[in-house]
Amino acid sequence: MRKLIVLALVGFGAQLVDGSLGMGYGVTSSTLLILAGLTPAAASASVHFSELGTNLASGFSHWKLKNVDWRVVARIAGPGAVGAFLGATVLSNLSTEAAAPVMAAILAALGLYIIIRFVLGVRPALKKALTMKFLAPLGLFAGFIDATGGGGWGPVATPALLVDGRMPPRKVIGSIDTSEFAVSAAASLGFLFGLGAAGINWGFALALLVGGLVAAPLAAYLVKVAPAHLLGVAVGGLILLTNSRTLLKTYDVADGTRWVVYGAVLVLTVVGLSVAVQRQRRRGPVDEEDRAQESVSV
Questions:
Q1: H helix count then E strand count, the chain
Q2: In the chain, what percentage of residues exceed pLDDT 70?
């Protein structure tokens, strides 16, 4: 019982981060379940089943608060579901750990770029709509990574859309969170196909679900009211921190050095937030950037 309560609290915290920054639920929850003794496939399966409920609650909350661009959801959700189903069936039979450090390095670089972009106020001069040619491959790849890694839909798709620059951060986060339901459903089917129902810890999945359901509306509200530049820097910091952790663990870096790196990333993020706030005060109202980006988002 104590373990289930702890898992519910983890689900709450993970969904609060995921729903407000567009990533973190799968990675956080899967890591804890693996530490609890589940295999990577069983942990990812349990997390994805819990996400069926949290994604619905999160998507509904984002929709009610107008954080969702449904045209983007329609273009990325289908390919994401295909990638997730393929990833789930692959993970049920083999490991994809060899690709982890490569992906982590790419995402860490993207995280650093996002921080710099929102600190400096760089606005990409892209005017054309987001098309299937861009969104379909992104969804397919992000869905595959999500299922094989126990999380990855947000960490891959969110920075890609933020770097692209055609959507304000709140729309990116809301749209990615909403489309994740299709990804979780497809991954769950893939795990049922590959593992069978006996391979899933339903108690763990339910505990995570309960915590996530409580956090979903609060996270969506935070996205609605938070300034775009602060969301951007916070997302970039989270991406950089999580992928730095993956790289340091992969290459077995000493604990002391790891904490120095974590501290440096945290300091960089806090300084970035401070600089972004000061820059925005000099530029004027924060809503102007959102309105300008929304006009070319799709």
A1: 12, 0
A2: 79
